[in-house]
């Protein structure tokens, strides 16, 4: 399934910034470079009910108790680049988890595979039977 461009979701996304942890020297203490993207699944008008249900099942660990899908980015020292990282992560999550799984086709083992399995079972059985006869 092809998703629309990332800016299609922009009106329904909430962006929140905070101070990042990790390396960065004094920059970490002054600049809010950590970016949190929040997307409320239940109220989204961009996704169908089936898509919402699929995302809630597959991304249960990333959804808050309020029903928001949470994506965090703090890899970079720049807030703008972290915002881009978060958007890419969000879009990748949607694309990965909205794909329909392929239907499994029922198949049967080949005649050769069945014969080989039965021969191996017979060999194993004979080996165990021979152990009982030897004292």
Automatic annotation (TrEMBL):
Residues 99-135 are annotated as: Disordered. InterPro entries: Pep_chain_release_fac_I. Residues 116-135 have a biased composition (Basic and acidic residues). SUPFAM superfamilies: Peptidyl-tRNA hydrolase domain-like. The keyword Hydrolase applies. Keywords: Hydrolase. PANTHER family: PEPTIDYL-TRNA HYDROLASE ARFB (PTHR47814:SF1). It comes from Hymenobacter citatus. GO terms for molecular function: peptidyl-tRNA hydrolase activity. Residues 12-130 form the Prokaryotic-type class I peptide chain release factors domain. This is Aminoacyl-tRNA hydrolase. It is an enzyme of class 3 (hydrolase). It holds the Pfam family RF-1. Its EC number is 3.1.1.29. The keyword Acetylation does not apply.
